[in-house]
Design goal:
Chain lengths: 411, 181
């Protein structure tokens, strides 16, 4: 049994009030403590995750049915969102996994690790099944979405650098042993829990409102796990197809796709023009890397305040000795000089990691900008695996697909 | 769908390679994987009973409860965790109690000893009783996270704001950090 050191000291020196010797034969009642519950319950979530991802794959690749897909999404929202209250989730597990590699003392629970690995493995083979069917954050936005606001694709592509900075911040937090910032800044937390982090309600309202007119704003411009899954999905062997027939280039799917993830058929004639753009693009990429590195450097200074030691140090510098933080720090025998050194180290780590992520973000942005300029020959409309959430809308609009189904019915 | 022997071997080879690579990457970290989910607990030695637990928890009714180690309790008639300071009469009238929800039950044992029990369903984890018990009594009343009410979040929201850094995940074999043996 755990022995609290305080109790040991107290029992040596004696308590303020001695424990009574009861004459009536009174015995100490047992301490009333809640049951921890079976440790298997955490693995139940993993089984549900596997089932839901399998059903999502079936809905997309076997049945190609929007209704089936929505059913699975709703089931995922009900279980992971309402029953499990949004935790554990794969998005938050990113920092736990980063901590495993970066922090020497970090430990990880196996269910959390599996929550990170299973959807990633699924994405490597079958595309972003987790985003489509299992993720409760995605499900809310999927179900709220009504009609998309026409925002150019370049804007979305530019905003994909945000998750890279987010992962960078999580890596810095993991390296310095700060709390899990992805979990704490999850804007959908107040939806799943009645309570939540103070001040998060505004962000929640913003994301819920924008979900109506923008398709999955959180997934596409914030989610750090989504960017990992979309990179993994690039290698996936199984790809969703819009139609089994030749494309008539009607562009219906292209206009409908809420994620703007469909490339229409294309027949590039001249590549000379594209080749001439290589040098300017390289220059733009390089300058983007420099600019974003500076932005990251600046952001790192402020982001380091997520670490308690940095906050505590600034409180001590501001001479706020009456605050509970400083009081309990000094009570626990902490030395302000040592804390100043630790806080400085933490700040440096945050700045370093954020600068690096600025460079990476610049490179990513350069590549994605360049990719819009290089055209490839395509006979039919094609889904861009990286951006596709497998919502099956396109499959159910394609007139070729519909006529095929009709002809099958007639026969 | 038919699968030729060559394709099957190819697939098996790919899976084996992938598994080995994943194993090589994750292998050195194997001993840092907790197979049983760890549980959030308050270290009673660090806790300052500041009262943030009551509202910082993501649950509407915080998972933090006051617990009572009877073995270190003084069984006082004038319990500093039960009565407000300057109480005129030592009865169980609500206006004399510190507890805002009346979650502490006071039972007569024998002269002059009284037993104090916490009603887990009423307790809101505000830590007012614990703060006074720590300051003027034996410290037998203190705050702890009740595992039955805890959602076992990946990141405890209280741990992120705890001014004393008192909340940490503990191994599943030690679900409660309690005062005394």
């Amino acid at each position: 049994m755990y022995k609290s050191p305080l109790t040991l000291i107290l029992s040596e020196s004696g308590f303020r009030f001695p424990q009574p010797d009861f004459a009536s034969g009174y015995e100490y009642p047992p301490m009333v403590l809640g049951n921890t519950g079976s440790f298997l319950s955490a693995y139940g979530d993993i089984i549900v995750l596997i089932i839901i991802m399998t059903l999502t794959a079936a809905a997309i690749y076997r049945f190609r049915s929007r209704l089936f897909f929505l059913g699975v999404t709703l089931a995922g929202l009900l279980y992971f969102g309402i029953v499990r209250q949004g935790c554990p989730c794969a998005v938050g597990s990113v920092q736990n996994v980063l901590a495993l590699f970066l922090h020497p003392e970090a430990r990880i629970d196996l269910p959390v690790l599996l929550f990170f690995l299973l959807p990633l493995a699924a994405a490597l083979f079958l595309g972003r099944l987790y985003c489509g069917g299992a993720c409760p954050l995605g499900a809310i936005q999927e179900l709220l979405f009504i009609k998309r606001l026409p925002i150019p694709r370049t804007v979305w592509q530019t905003l994909t650098i945000v998750p890279i900075f987010y992962i960078g911040a999580a890596a810095a937090a993991a390296w310095t042993g700060a709390p899990n910032i992805i979990c704490l800044s999850d804007p959908f937390l107040p939806v799943f829990h009645a309570g939540g982090v103070t001040g998060m309600g505004i962000l929640t309202a913003v994301f819920l409102a924008t979900s109506l007119i923008l398709y999955r704003p959180y997934c596409r411009i914030i989610c750090p796990y989504g960017v990992m899954l979309s990179l993994a999905a690039l290698f996936s062997g199984k790809r969703a197809t819009i139609t089994g027939h030749t494309c008539s280039d009607c562009k219906l799917c292209n206009e409908l796709c809420p994620a703007d993830a469909i490339s229409p058929p294309d027949n590039p004639i001249d590549t000379e023009e594209a080749r001439a753009k290589i040098l300017p693009l390289l220059l733009i990429t390089a300058s983007l890397m420099v600019v974003l590195a500076f932005a990251g450097n600046l952001a790192g200074r402020y982001l380091s305040f997520v670490h308690t030691d940095v906050r505590l140090n600034s409180l001590i510098i501001q001479q706020k000795t009456e605050s509970t933080e400083v009081e309990s720090f000094l009570e626990q025998g902490g030395k302000p000089e040592e804390l100043a050194i630790t806080a400085g180290k933490i700040k440096t780590r945050f700045i370093t990691i954020m600068t690096i992520s600025g460079v990476v973000a610049g490179l990513f942005l350069g590549i994605s900008l360049a990719s819009t300029d290089f055209r490839r020959y395509r006979e039919s409309a094609q889904i861009r695996q990286k951006e596709c959430f497998l919502c099956t809308r396109c499959m159910n609009t394609c007139p070729r697909e519909k006529s095929k189904k009709l002809s099958e019915k007639v026969i | 769908m038919s699968l030729s022997r060559r394709d099957l071997l190819k697939k098996l080879f790919l899976w084996a390679t992938g598994g080995t690579v994943a194993g090589l990457i994750l292998g050195p970290w194997f001993n840092r994987i907790a197979f049983k989910r760890r549980l959030w607990q308050i270290d009673p030695d660090k806790c300052t009973n500041c009262g943030l637990c009551e509202n910082a928890c993501v649950k509407f009714h915080s998972a933090v409860r006051c617990v009572h180690t009877y073995a270190i309790c003084g069984y006082c008639d004038l319990c500093s965790g039960y009565y407000r300071q300057g109480t005129a009469m030592l009865d169980t009238a609500p206006e004399r109690q510190i507890c805002p929800t009346g979650a502490i039950e006071r039972n007569f044992i024998e002269n002059p000893y009284f037993e104090y029990r916490i009603n887990r369903e009423l307790c809101i984890g505000c830590g007012r009783c614990a703060k006074n018990c720590e300051a003027f009594g034996n410290g037998s009343l203190y705050l702890q996270i009740d595992q039955e009410y805890c959602s076992h979040c990946n990141q405890c929201a209280i741990a992120a704001v705890c001014p004393a850094n008192a909340i940490r995940p503990t191994e599943a074999s030690l679900p409660y950090l309690l005062k005394g043996g």
